[in-house]
Every structure is written in structure tokens, then in C-alpha cells.
Write a structure and sequence with these properties.
Elements: E1 2-4, E2 14-19, H1 22-33, E3 37-42, E4 59-70, E5 76-94, E6 97-104, H2 113-132, H3 138-145, H4 150-160, H5 165-172, H6 177-209, H7 214-228, H8 234-248, H9 253-268, H10 274-288, H11 301-311, H12 316-332, E7 339-343, H13 350-361, E8 365-369, H14 377-380, H15 393-401, E9 407-411, H16 424-432, E10 440-441, E11 448-449, E12 455-460, H17 468-471, E13 474-478, H18 484-502, E14 510-511, H19 514-523, H20 531-549, E15 556-557, H21 563-567, E16 585-592, E17 595-607, E18 615-618, H22 623-639, E19 646-651, H23 665-677, E20 685-687, E21 690-691, E22 697-698, H24 703-713, E23 717-721, H25 733-737, E24 740-744, H26 747-754
Parallel strand pairs: 1-3, 7-12, 7-13, 8-9, 9-12, 14-15, 16-20, 18-19, 20-23, 23-24
Antiparallel strand pairs: 2-5, 3-4, 4-5, 5-6, 10-11, 16-17, 17-19, 21-22
């Protein structure tokens, strides 16, 4: 007996077999020495190397060895001719090979019109299958055409059909020729349908895609075959995964319908095509957005107050307004609310207080910086017209938070600009308007997303740089500059301990007393916030860490005397801007995006070389400041007439820094009056105010920051417009106590105080 793995032999057919197992080789040699007959039995499991009786089918083919050809590798190629079907009754091992006993299966005779009809139909289908497929040789068709017995015809056709060994074995075990031929007819019909379907797919694919899409054609063939076999391919798994994600995302109905539509497109698109990649990315965004995820608000005003006081020193009015806002949220239970806009110089705590609000509410915190953004697509997203398109920054921030109601900070909103790519400021209107942001539409998502539950907080350095339509939708909260004492307190309570820990030090290893912090504030920083102060403290800690790394054992104490060894030469001088009274030089107070500052304005008169006076302005002045200079010049000349024309040169030092605004009007007028009359301007006086041609002093903005700048500079007298008196309520008492505030209604009031 010869066991074979993956082939089924049939009677009356020539079969070629490669014999390599020792068990089979010994059986073959025994047959060649005797009757030259062997029984070919098929294994039920092809992986079994040494089969047992239970691993073999019970029906095989009794065959005659026609030819044996030894191969170089020790195997034998054997040509066998099938004689008859044979049913095994017993199997025994002996003399190194397998012997079997049994009897041949006697076939019944079959004849009649129905048998003839079945044979003709079998020949017709076999011919059709042979023409459609390339696996059956034409010689097999010729052989079948000369067969007159239905059983033999069924055996020939079954032998050449590309069907599974199990199906061939079933045909071999069928002794009734009519039943056997009927089974073969069914297999032929199915094979014809499969080949027709394959040809149809091939024709449609080649017609639609051409020769450049051969890979797609092969995938489609595989897909149809697997569908016929009721199997799911990887694309099916991918589609099922996306389908599950869409259901779990709990999208609104219109978004859910859009996602399902895109999923159907993904099923039809080639998996490696650019279109498929775009659809996958889009579905990933749709299913990852928190359409219905809301974090629970922990609205407790007392807890919020503790958090704000813990994280921020001072800013009492700011914290008071934020607590009012949270109290309204707590009482009303509404998710909607005004858009807060924090306006103030850098380093005063605008961004950090936003984080504290998020902690107090128990919400996620998201922050995006809008500085330099000039493309509308940064806000609204890119349209899905290319592979690299993506949503705008707002949708990206919402996705990263994982909730629909985070505290969302839009930083540096005053530094956005616009060009030919659109106006991002206008794009923000829809997102920040509480009346319409419940249906915010991103160009990439192309579906409305509800932003009404988001608490938006904007930050800016200058309110004037925010376009009015956008400013109208926000509630502005001014962040003031810190006083000297506030900076020292912040350094003692927050910055020193923070930097000591960051540099791997212990509090017992370094001492930075209050007097040293005051010296740093006065001589090494000049700012509204505390960023430079934090950097200088970091420098002290860095130098201290180096000393300990080099082997220091004692505590490092920083004093006013050795401070220069740590930080170098002082960067700023503390005290009045001018050391003595000067003719033609006045001190003014200005407000910039970095807070209040003190500037000197110098005026010089020279004999005119022509019949008319010439005005020269230097120091990189803006248009508004130039107009103020002309107004101041006209006003003073009307009060101090002088014979003969003279050229006037007005200079504002620090020419590399752009300057603009009307608040230096009375300062330029005072400096010009001093140069015209020869009376010096008092060095301990600083002033701010707009001037008219008739000499009226008009109110200006940023008074709190300007007075704090005068306080930092050590100035004793400050002249302000009389209409700005109401703004003094916002100035810290410590600064007011150290200054003499003079109110001026006309330029004459200013000159009486300023001129010595």
C-alpha cells in the first residue's frame, strides 16, 4: 500500500507519483518483486509523516506500476495505471511496509436515455469549463470525448477539475456511476459559474482601470474568491472596525450619516489609493472628536478662590471678576457664558490664571498661540482637497482634550494678521460668538460641531490691536503691572522655591534675602511682569548649583555686595530719569505692550537757514506722535512769540524702538517751552497727556501702568490730565503714597509745575 498526501487517484487513468518516504519505498520494491500491484490510499491529514490506519481513507485505487524512475535525491518517480476501486477491510504492518486486505468495488451498469443526456451535458459543461479556464489541458477533453461509460467519464472529469481532495475522495467512494456523474455535473456547473464571474471581474476591472491597476485587479479577484468562500478579508475587518468606532462616537444624526457615507466610499476605494488614505484620515478625525463627551463641572466658588489665591499673588480685582463669573455659572447651571479676554503686559499671569480656572472648574485645559497666524485655514481648517489637509487649531485642541467643554485659551489674539490667504480674525467670530458657535463648521470636518460648552479665554497685550467686531464679543479684564513690593512678594512665595527645586538644590543650600530681591528688581529688571525676575533668580540658582558641583560644602548666601558676582554689572539704574534739571529735556510716561515706561524727550532750537522754521523729528516716531509734535509746537509758539524763525529738532532716544500715541503731547510741549524760554525742566517731574492747539490737556489711557513706571523709576511728581483723576482708584496705594500727583487742565498748569 502507498499512502499519498494531497492527491486522489482514479481507475483507468495514468497517474504519476513521487515516492520519498521509506515506508512507501519499501512497499514499492516489494510490489516490483511480485505482482507489480499497489493500493493507493489518500491521507485524511496531509501533515502526518507516518500515517496509521486511522489517518487513511478506507477507499482507494488498486493500481499497476507501469514505470519507475530513480531520482538523484533518492526518491522515485512512479507511473501508475489505475485498475479498480478498492475498499480496505484490514491494514497490517510487516516487513517494513504496509499491507492491506479488501475487495474491489463492483460498479453497477448504467444505461438509458437519462444516462446519455447526463453524459452529453457533462461533456458540454466540461468543454465550456476547459475553454474558460487554463488549468485543464485540452487533451483531457479529447480523452473524455471517446469514453462511453458514465462512471469512467465522471472519473476523468473529476480527475482534471481543480477541486479539493475531499471532494475527489467523495467521488471515488461513490460506486453508483449515475450518482457519481450527477455529482460531477454539479461541480462542473459551479466551476463554470466561478470562471464566468472571474472573467466578468477581469473584464470590468481592465475596462475601468487599465493595465496600470493590475494590483487592484488582483485584490478584487481575491475579494470575490473570499466572498465565495464566506471569508472576510482585511478590508472587511477595517470597515467593521470603523463601523464600531462610528457607533461608539455618539455623533449627531447628520454627522453619523456623513460618516456612514464615507465608510461606504472606503469599501469601494482601492486600499492603497490616495483617495483611500484621505478617507481613512477623515474617518479617524470624525470618530476621535468628543461629540457627546462632557466633563463634570466642579463649580465651587470657595474652592476656586482657594486655588486662585494659592497660585497667584495680588491681582485682586482680576480674581474678584473671575469668581463673579464662576458664581453665575454655579447659580444658573448654564454652559454658555461670556468670552473672557485678559489684557495686560507679558509676564503678569494671564496664561497661568487660565490654567487655575480650568483646575477650579475640573475641566481640561487647551491652549493655542495665535501670534503670527495669518491664514484663515489655521482657524477653520483646510478643505479635503489634498492628502495633507487637516482641521483647524480649534478642532485639534478639542480633540486633544477629549471633552466638548474644556477651558480653551487663545493666546496672543492681538498679534494675528491677515494676507491673501484670508482673515483669521474674522474666522474667529463664529467660534467666539455665543449665539452661533453651537454650529461651528470646520472646513475639514464639514459638519457642525457644538462649541457652546467651551469656556474660551483670550489673552492680549494691547486691546487696541484687536479688531472691534471681535472685541465686541468679549468681556475684557485688564491685568495690571506688578509693583515693586508685589514682585518681591511673588519671588519670595513662588519663584525662589520653584527655581531652587528645578536646579536640584535644597532650601538649606542657598539663601536669597529680601534685600537682594529688591536689588534685582530695581537694577536687573525693568518690566511689568516677573519673567525677567524669574530668569535672574534662575541664574542665581544655576551659579549656586555649580559651586556645589565643584565641591562647596557651606550654604551659599547671596548679598547685595556679592550680587554682582552672580549676575554681573547692573543693567538698569534706579532713580529719576534725569539726574539734574535740564533745558529742553522733559520726562514723559508712555504705555507699550510691555507695560508702562519712562522716556526722555529732547528739544533743540537752531537758527533757521531760510525764511520759514523747519521741524525735524527723530527717534522712529509713529504718525500719531508726529501729529502731537506739530500740535505741541503750534500751541507753545502761540504762547511764547519770538522774533525770527528758528529750526526745531525733537528727538526721542532709543531710536531703534518704534513709538506712537498722543500721550507724549504735553511732554513735547514742555520740552519745547523750556528750550524757548531757557528755563530748565525739573528732573523729578514726569508727565502724560494729549495736547490740543488751544493748549487743553486731554485724558489718555494706561494711567495705572504709567504711574507704576514712574514709581519704578523713583520719580516724585507726576502730572496727569484732570479727567484722568477717576483712574487713580486703580493705582496701588503703595505707588500713590510715594508720588505727588498733579492735575492739569491746560498746558499752563503743566508749565507752572514742570519748569524750574
Amino acid at each position: 500500500m502507498l499512502p499519498v498526501r494531497d492527491a486522489v487517484h482514479f481507475p483507468s487513468l495514468i497517474n504519476t507519483l513521487l515516492v520519498g518516504r521509506e515506508l512507501s519505498l519499501r512497499a514499492l520494491h516489494a510490489a516490483l518483486d511480485g505482482s507489480r500491484q499497489v493500493l493507493v490510499l489518500t491521507q485524511t491529514d496531509v501533515s502526518v509523516e507516518e500515517p496509521t490506519p486511522t489517518d487513511l481513507y478506507q477507499v482507494g485505487v488498486l493500481s499497476e506500476v507501469v514505470q519507475v524512475l530513480p531520482m538523484p535525491d533518492g526518491t522515485m518517480r512512479v507511473v501508475l495505471r489505475g485498475i479498480s476501486r478498492f475498499r480496505v477491510e484490514s491494514i497490517a504492518f510487516g516487513q517494513g511496509f504496509i499491507r492491506s486486505k479488501g475487495s474491489a468495488l463492483i460498479e453497477k451498469e448504467a444505461f438509458g436515455p437519462s444516462v446519455d443526456a447526463m453524459m452529453r451535458e457533462a461533456m458540454r459543461l466540461f468543454e465550456e469549463v476547459t475553454q474558460l479556464g487554463k488549468q485543464i489541458p485540452f487533451e483531457a477533453l479529447q480523452m473524455a470525448a471517446h469514453i462511453e461509460q458514465p462512471g469512467a467519464l465522471a472519473d476523468v472529469i473529476a480527475h482534471h477539475l481543480p477541486i479539493r481532495p475531499q471532494q475527489k475522495q467523495d467521488i471515488l467512494e461513490t460506486a453508483d456511476p449515475t450518482h457519481r456523474l450527477s455529482t460531477v455535473l454539479g461541480l462542473l456547473s459551479r466551476e463554470r459559474d466561478v470562471l464566468n464571474l472571474q472573467a466578468d471581474i477581469r473584464g470590468r476591472v481592465e475596462e475601468e482601470l487599465g493595465q496600470t491597476q493590475r494590483e487592484y485587479y488582483l485584490r478584487e479577484q481575491l475579494k470575490i474568491i473570499q466572498q465565495e468562500l464566506n471569508e472576510r478579508d482585511e478590508r472587511g475587518d477595517e470597515v467593521a472596525e470603523y463601523d464600531e468606532k462610528i457607533e461608539l462616537a455618539l455623533m449627531p444624526a447628520e454627522v453619523h450619516e456623513k460618516a456612514e457615507h464615507e465608510l461606504r466610499r472606503l469599501e469601494r476605494a482601492p486600499s492603497a489609493s490616495p483617495e483611500s488614505m484621505v478617507i481613512r484620515t477623515y474617518l479617524d478625525w470624525l470618530t476621535s472628536l468628543p461629540w457627546s463627551v462632557l466633563s463634570d463641572d466642579a463649580l465651587d466658588v470657595r474652592r476656586a478662590k482657594d486655588i486662585l489665591d494659592r497660585d497667584h499673588f495680588g491681582l485682586e480685582k482680576v480674581k474678584d471678576r473671575i469668581l463673579d463669573f464662576l458664581a453665575v455659572r454655579q447659580m444658573s447651571g448654564s454652559l454658555r457664558g461670556p468670552i473672557l479676554c485678559f489684557v495686560g503686559p507679558p509676564g503678569v499671569g494671564k496664561t497661568s490664571i487660565g490654567k487655575s480656572i480650568a483646575e477650579a472648574l475640573g475641566r481640561q485645559f487647551a491652549r493655542i498661540s495665535l501670534g503670527g497666524v495669518r491664514d484663515e485655514a489655521e482657524i477653520r481648517g483646510h478643505r479635503r482637497t489634498y492628502i495633507g489637509s487637516m482641521p483647524g487649531r480649534i478642532i485639534q485642541g478639542i480633540k486633544n482634550c477629549g471633552t466638548r467643554n474644556p477651558v480653551f485659551m487663545l493666546d496672543e489674539i492681538d498679534k494675528m494678521t491677515f494676507d491673501f490667504r484670508g482673515d483669521p480674525t474674522s474666522a474667529l467670530l463664529e467660534a467666539l460668538d455665543p449665539e452661533q458657535n453651537d454650529k461651528f463648521t470646520d472646513h475639514y470636518i464639514e459638519a457642525p460641531f457644538d462649541l457652546s460648552a467651551v469656556m474660551f479665554i483670550c489673552t492680549a497685550n494691547l486691546l487696541e490691536n484687536i479688531p472691534w467686531p471681535l472685541r465686541d464679543r468679549m468681556e475684557v479684564i485688564q491685568f495690571p503691572s506688578y509693583t515693586e513690593e508685589e514682585k518681591i512678594a511673588i519671588a519670595q512665595q513662588y519663584l525662589v522655591s520653584k527655581k531652587i527645586a528645578e536646579h536640584g538644590l535644597k532650601k538649606s543650600q542657598v539663601a536669597i534675602p529680601k534685600a537682594v530681591l529688591r536689588e534685582i528688581v530695581r537694577e536687573y529688571t525693568r518690566e511689568a511682569g516677573v519673567r525677567s525676575l524669574e530668569r535672574e533668580i534662575a541664574t542665581l540658582c544655576r551659579k549656586t548649583a555649580r559651586k556645589f558641583a565643584e565641591g562647596a560644602r557651606k550654604k551659599v548666601s547671596v548679598t547685595a555686595k556679592n550680587l554682582i558676582d552672580f549676575l554681573g554689572t547692573p543693567k538698569y539704574g534706579w532713580g529719576v530719569k534725569e539726574q539734574r534739571d535740564e533745558v529742553g529735556a522733559a520726562t514723559g510716561l508712555v504705555y507699550t505692550e510691555f507695560g508702562g515706561d519712562v522716556v526722555s524727550i529732547e528739544v533743540n532750537l537752531m537758527p533757521s537757514q531760510s525764511q520759514e522754521s523747519q521741524l525735524t523729528l527723530t527717534g522712529q516716531l509713529g504718525d500719531v506722535m508726529k501729529e502731537s509734535a506739530h500740535a505741541a509746537l503750534t500751541c507753545i509758539r502761540s504762547r511764547f512769540p519770538k522774533n525770527g524763525p528758528s529750526d526745531v529738532h525733537i528727538h526721542v532716544p532709543a531710536g531703534a524702538v518704534p513709538k506712537d500715541g498722543p500721550s507724549a503731547g504735553i511732554t513735547m510741549a514742555t520740552a519745547f517751552a523750556s528750550a524757548l524760554t531757557g528755563k530748565p525742566v525739573r528732573a523729578d517731574v514726569a508727565m502724560t497727556g494729549e495736547i490740543t492747539l488751544r493748549g487743553k490737556v486731554l485724558p489718555v489711557g494706561g494711567l495705572r501702568e504709567k504711574i507704576l513706571a514712574a514709581h519704578r523709576a523713583g520719580i516724585k511728581n507726576v502730572i496727569i490730565p484732570v479727567d484722568n483723576k477717576r483712574d487713580l482708584a486703580d493705582v496701588p496705594k503703595q505707588a500713590l503714597d510715594s508720588l505727588n500727583i498733579h492735575l492739569a487742565r491746560k498746558i499752563d498748569d503743566v508749565l507752572k509745575i514742570a519748569l524750574a
